[in-house]
Design brief:
3 domains, BirA Bifunctional Protein, domain 2, alpha+beta, eight-stranded mixed β-sheet, OB fold (Dihydrolipoamide Acetyltransferase, E2P)
Length: 622
């Protein structure tokens, strides 16, 4: 808890600022300023009284400066200094003095000097804060996130959050400069648009002027940016808010920011080159790091079968091996049935874990079953002393020669641990991908912070459609405006699950940071796609008639990409949560504790909108 004041000044002690304009920020002063008369303004960070001389660290978003109140310098100012407490807002006037050699603070850029105060104005007092926001990490209290979000106006005074927001600001500026050099126009698209539900739920906004009708907040400006291409604007971008009313997972926000980009006459190669130049500019200007280009590429199929993810983290190995051929016919009924049914037995090799005990392996098996959702784990331990392999299944279940063939296939040696799962594609590969990441965390193979390495990767050739077993229909894997590969068009009617999309994702360190595609630009092809999605012509006209109409007036080929700005800044900042790079974020329950949003509204507002609320029944309700 922050320091308490025994006798806080009354509001009448708050003064008018009689000082001149601030001459320096709290991060400016250096030894070359010694002897200068300065005016600083900021917040009281910490206060120390050492035998009648008061030392205060004055804070603003630029840094800290030590200011000194001494009765020898000015008795009246010293008396005022006695009343100062944490988070008071003050203006001080004084002389810059060099610190003595034994009091220099090498951790601060301003640590070689201090300001001897000649006059102080208390511009505002402050209640005792619920947690300390000091720039000195060792002095901060560890408040939980709920409390910090309730008092976000205090939380945002923390140096780390301010640095994150400064990084975000610089991201905006670098992006705008770079895209301007590439002839892009920054064009705003509507925030109040038509609901075109496909994927996540829309946030709806009732219209007072059109009773019974609703606007929707955009999940993305997808159709508008395509209209910009039809309009001949050639190159569009926008740093834009997007909204999705979905059940939130960790590090998801109902409102988020995209760098949205679209190009006429675009090819995949043009998009790759543009984005690689953009990433290189960002890392050079914001991180002072040169990243190599072009980025490596990997097809979706390769990513899934090698890493168990369409956003693989390639900073560590632990690649997936298909051992179906090696284990087929072993007599182990579970494996044989899966292989005979077209499924797979797959494995990863974990170096250095071959001596793990039974307790560890039982916990790992429980994690695989309960958290990852696989049916169970088969494993082989290879002790580091070179003794015989120790499989988790007995020899009469899987004969030794089959185990040996698996170990040869995966190239396992002494000291290794081989983990085996079985199932159908893609599910079992996704499960192994999750296990792969779990083992990487266990072995501390995932670097933290923002020091790199920075492993960029293009994932290409996604499936155009994915089957929804619950709805018994296909959904677009990206969105319904993604162009199929021309050579796969014939399969759209006969084998829609085999059609590849001209889609691509940009991945960084196992995180998807952007996704895009070459779009459909022909009305007939677009209707063909809608048919594959179970959207008939009447429904297509109702939802997307404006776009189909536009396509009939000379739409150029076009394509683009959208980057997740929040997630990119989070990675660059080395932050652990999206909420640390957004000024006023929502919680996992999509609420904003500071302003208590969402909230009820006046009944009269609902009447104006012709809306009546019907709340869900609670337990015990009739």
């Amino acid at each position: 808890m922050a320091e308490a004041s025994a006798a806080s000044p009354s509001p009448t002690s708050v003064q008018h600022d009689t000082h001149s304009t601030r001459t320096h920020t709290c991060g400016d002063l250096r030894p070359e300023h010694v002897g200068e008369h300065v005016v600083l303004k900021g917040w009281v960070d910490t206060r120390r009284d050492l035998g009648g001389v008061i030392f205060i660290d004055l804070r603003d978003r630029y840094g800290l400066t030590q200011i000194v109140f001494s009765p020898q310098d000015d008795a009246e100012a010293h008396d005022a200094g006695n009343t100062l407490r944490s988070e008071y807002v003050v203006s001080v006037e004084g002389i810059v003095q060099e610190r003595s050699e034994d009091t220099v603070n090498p951790k601060l850029p301003t640590g070689g000097v201090e300001v001897r105060v000649q006059d102080v104005n208390i511009l505002n007092t402050a209640d005792v804060p619920p947690f300390t926001v000091s720039a000195h990490e060792e002095k901060r209290t560890r408040a939980n996130e709920d409390l910090r979000l309730q008092h976000r106006f205090l939380d945002l005074r923390r140096q780390q959050l301010q640095e994150n927001l400064r990084l975000r600001h610089r991201f905006y500026q670098t992006t705008r400069r770079y895209l301007d050099t590439q002839d892009f126009l920054e064009i705003e698209t509507p925030v109040l648009m038509k609901s075109t539900p496909e994927g996540a739920r829309d946030f709806l906004v009732p219209s007072r002027l059109h009773p019974g009708k609703f606007y929707a907040l955009p999940q993305s400006p997808q159709t508008y940016k395509q209209i910009c291409m039809v309009a001949g604007l050639d190159r569009y971008f926008q740093i834009v808010k997007c909204f999705r009313d979905e059940d939130l997972r960790a590090d998801r926000q109902p409102e988020f920011t995209q760098v949205d980009i679209e190009m006429s006459f675009a090819t995949e190669e043009q998009v790759y080159s543009l984005m690689e130049g953009h990433m290189a500019a960002l890392w050079k200007e914001l991180m002072d790091t040169d990243i190599p280009t072009p980025f490596p590429r990997m097809t979706y199929e390769t990513a899934m079968r090698t890493y168990g993810s369409d956003k693989p983290d390639t900073r560590f190995d632990l690649k997936i091996h298909n051992v179906s051929d090696a284990i087929a016919g072993s007599g182990f009924r579970v494996f044989d049935n899966i292989i005979d049914g077209g499924g797979h037995v797959i494995a990863i090799v974990v170096p250095g874990e071959g001596d793990q005990g039974r307790g560890y392996m039982d916990r790992l098996d429980a994690h695989v079953r309960k958290t990852i959702g696989a049916g169970g784990l088969v494993y082989v331990r290879l002790p580091s002393d070179g003794s015989a392999p120790q499989p988790s299944v007995k020899e009469h279940v899987i004969p030794t020669e089959y185990i040996d063939e698996v170990l040869t296939t995966v190239d396992a040696g002494a000291g290794d641990l081989v983990l085996v799962l079985a199932g159908t594609y893609p599910t079992v590969f996704e499960q192994m991908g999750a296990l792969r990441l779990h083992m990487a965390r266990e072995l501390d193979l995932l670097p933290g912070g923002n020091e790199g390495p920075w492993e960029f990767l293009w994932v290409t050739d996604f499936p155009l459609l994915e089957w929804d077993a619950d709805a018994q229909r296909y959904h677009a894997m990206h969105h319904p405006f993604t162009s199929p590969h021309p050579e796969d068009m014939a399969k759209l009617d006969t084998a829609p699950g085999e059609v590849r999309a001209r889609a691509y994702d940009l991945v960084l360190n196992g995180t998807e940071i952007g996704g895009g595609s070459i779009r459909i630009h022909n009305a007939d092809v677009q209707q063909h796609m809608f048919n594959a999605l179970g959207i008939d012509e009447a429904e297509a006209q109702k939802r997307f008639g404006f776009l189909l109409k536009a396509f009939r007036f000379g739409a150029p080929p076009h394509g683009g990409i959208a980057l997740g700005l929040d997630r990119l800044v989070m990675l660059m900042a080395g932050a652990s949560s999206l909420r640390d790079v957004i000024a006023f974020p929502k919680t996992q329950s999509a609420a904003e504790p500071m302003v208590k949003s969402p909230d009820v509204v006046d009944p009269e507002q609902l009447r104006d909108l012709h809306i009546r609320t019907v709340l869900p029944k609670t337990d015990g309700a009739g």
